[in-house]
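Chain X:
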Amino acid sequence: MADTITCTLITPEQAVFEKEASYIDLPAHDGQMGFMANRAPLLVKLGEGVLTVKEASGETKMKVSGGFAQMKGNTLAVLTDKAEAVE
């Protein structure tokens, strides 16, 4: 079994990134959700907040607003209306 997740972040304008992560935290419409490898499939509506991708080399944080996230296999696809880097 894999111990990482591939996280793809896409807006209507562009593919923002695709990264391998050990843990991902995202703002669902009803609260924060965490994702690790081998999680059950899930489709969730996004809210507004910070998406955190924990990689071996550190963390990537993006402010996202609206959209959906789908976990299937060890891939998390995040389709959001807007994504901005958080410093």
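Chain Y:
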Amino acid sequence: MDENVLKTMTTFDSLLQSQHLQMLKAAIPYLSGNAKNTLSILCKLLELKKTIQMSVDETSALSMCSVTPEEGGSNILLLLKEIRPYCTKAEQENVDFFVDVFQMYETYASMLT
């Protein structure tokens, strides 16, 4: 995976992050071994806590971030396009192939109706 891709945050991750949590994560490389381990665990626990809070609250951003297919689109196409930036070059070629296959199928299906 390209290093620039790792700096790209998914929609889900953006729901869990805060400015302060990002500041804590940025500090991790500058700490000593034990403090580094402790702060790393603390950051993940804070993310887990936020995830649990969002999963319990039905009005949270997590329940509102569901993707609905576009007119004539499908969730699988949206999913493939969403995960593509996080793939290696070889995986991107496979994703592109499947996107093409699904788009051809949708075109074919629309011609039958």
